[in-house]
Design brief:
The chain has helices at residues 24-34, 51-70, 84-88, 91-97, 133-143, 188-209, 255-260, 284-293, 322-337, 357-367, 377-382, 402-430, 439-447, and strands at residues 38-40, 47-49, 74-75, 81-83, 102-112, 115-128, 152-161, 175-185, 214-218, 230-237, 243-253, 263-265, 271-273, 275-282, 310-314, 340-341, 344-345, 348-350, 371-375, 384-389, 398-401, 432-433, 460-465, 481-486, 505-510. By secondary structure, it is α+β, with helices and mostly antiparallel strands. Helix 2 runs antiparallel to helix 6 (188-209).
């Protein structure tokens, strides 16, 4: 779309204070609040996901669900409460979650001296679902009898509860929403193929839908999911240089199958234990897209997950022309909703609230609506549209012929989507250090700025590591961890940046959320 030669409006003042550079952590909180994505509730550590945020989550669900079903998975639902005895069967799993578990010990309340107190102790405590491997494994043990019952491919959309000592909205809350996939297979090859396949689905989803560039790789032993044989992950860089684990896929081996007695008769008539997997992403992805894409004016929502991709703002200063403007806007909304992008109708909102036009404009800027259309009497008379691209706010407004904008709207949204991804990828590449080869340089780099500022995470260091987990003790004082062992390994990993001995592989070091 080519803009007219009419002068651009001046760039607006910064809406979010403090800015990213002043205090990144507070900036993040302010963006989430200003964008009306979520807020903390009256229950400690628990959040309310509001309409703009939940609308994005619904679109994420829809796309992931489509991908899951295309690979043969079915949606199930399992109980929120899990008997404690189920967890006790898998010691490593229990140890990994023990400090986070919420426990129900009574089944009713009683009034004593005017005060409600727990009453009716349960014979066995119930755990409020932190994850569902054990309860799903119990069900699988009943459903799997023969190799003909395999593979069993299940997914669940649910909420989980994990007591969080230091809550951070969207990123770490006591209750959050997620999907968790659980599968059972005949052998290692089938289970590992599933584990890798689901990680690739997460990678494609993050990059295509969220405009979030990620690195795929394997977790080192100390960072694996409790009870897993292998954990694979996607890691994204946020704007302060820290890593966000955006999704994980786990090969569980036969550990959970043995704990839950998931056995089947193989093709030779012999009883064997199944090989199982689990994989999941959560509403922390909402926090990820805030920290990856937002700026000092608020959110920039990737168009594919924006609840409203185009927002029409009527400018109604002249009462005599109000009806003409509203008719023009309504017709424009209908014509835009008839346009398709990715095979789906464009999501278009006509904001007719009786508040100042400038307030409405800033409301949607802070929410990150991809395209804003301001329509006043002059636009109606001229058959034009005043357009603002949220990702290019500093460029000001464009005035386009109505028909040209309508036919090009989908392409404009695609350009915004790609532009957000390209900007995030360029930022990650800028903050990816591959030239740090020894401990002195490594320590100096991460010690340079460890406060709460825009560069507190610094960035990613891709360097050699020996594989000796005892050497990781040196990282504790810096708050750095190994995020993953990237799949795209260098044939010559060089020397270990921590010890100076020959490296076994390259890894990604970073501070993380």
């Amino acid at each position: 779309m080519k803009p007219s030669t009419q002068p651009k409006a001046p760039a607006p003042k910064t809406a979010i204070t403090p800015t990213r550079a002043e205090n990144y952590a507070q900036w993040y909180q302010q963006v989430v609040r200003a964008a009306d994505i979520a807020e903390m509730s009256g229950v400690r550590g628990c959040m309310i996901i509001k309409g703009w945020g939940y609308g994005a989550w619904e679109l994420m669900q829809r796309d992931l669900d489509r991908r899951f079903k295309a690979t043969g998975h079915e949606n199930y639902y399992f109980p929120l409460f899990i008997p404690l005895s189920y967890f006790q069967r898998e010691a490593a799993h229990v140890d990994g979650f023990a400090k986070e578990m919420a426990v129900v010990t009574h089944h009713r309340l009683a009034m004593k001296d005017g005060v409600l107190v727990p009453d009716g102790a349960l014979e066995e405590p119930l755990i409020v679902r932190p994850t569902s491997e054990t309860v799903i494994g119990e069900a699988m043990a009943k459903w799997v009898q023969s190799y003909r019952d395999l593979p069993l491919l299940l997914n669940q959309w649910a909420n989980v509860v994990r007591w969080e000592m230091r809550p951070r909205i969207l990123l770490r809350t006591t209750e959050f929403l997620w999907q968790e996939g659980h599968t059972a297979h005949e052998d290692y090859d089938g289970a590992m193929q599933e584990t890798r396949q689901m990680l690739e689905i997460y990678r494609a989803f993050a990059e295509e839908q969220l405009a979030l560039p990620v690195i795929t790789g394997a977790k080192i032993a100390s960072e694996r999911f409790p009870g897993a044989v292998d954990t694979f992950c996607i890691e994204a860089m946020m704007q302060d240089g820290r890593a966000l684990q955006a999704g994980t896929s786990h090969y569980l081996g036969q550990h959970f199958a043995k704990a839950c007695n998931i056995q089947y008769q193989n093709r030779q008539g012999v009883q064997e234990y199944a090989h199982t997997t689990s994989w999941g992403v959560s509403t922390r992805l909402l926090g990820g897209i805030v920290m990856c894409h937002a700026d000092d004016d608020g959110m920039k929502m990737p168009p594919r997950v924006a609840a409203q991709q185009i927002v029409i703002l009527p400018i109604l200063r002249d009462e005599a022309q109000k009806q003409a403007v509203m008719d023009y806007c309504a017709a424009l909304q209908a014509e835009l909703q008839a346009q398709l992008w990715d095979g789906q109708a464009l999501r278009v909102k006509l904001d007719a609230r009786d508040i100042a036009a400038s307030d409405k404009r800033w409301d949607w800027i802070k929410k990150g609506a991809p395209l804003l259309l301001e329509i006043g009497p002059r636009d109606v008379q001229g058959g034009q549209i005043c357009v603002t691209r949220r990702d290019r706010l500093a460029e000001g407004k464009k005035f386009l012929p109505r028909g040209e904008f309508i036919t090009g709207a989908a392409a404009e949204l695609a350009a915004i989507q790609q532009g957000l991804f390209d900007a995030a990828l360029a930022f990650r590449n800028q903050r990816m250090r591959t030239d740090i080869k020894d401990w002195k340089a490594f320590e100096a780099y991460f010690a340079e700025d460890a406060d709460n500022s825009f560069t507190s995470g610094q960035g990613f260091v891709r360097a050699g590591w020996s594989g000796d987990e005892a050497s990781l003790e040196k990282l504790a004082a810096l708050g750095v961890t190994i995020r993953c062992v990237p799949f795209d390994q260098n044939d010559n990993p060089g020397v270990c940046v921590l010890t100076g001995v020959p490296a076994a592989q390259e890894v990604i070091f970073a501070r993380a959320y």
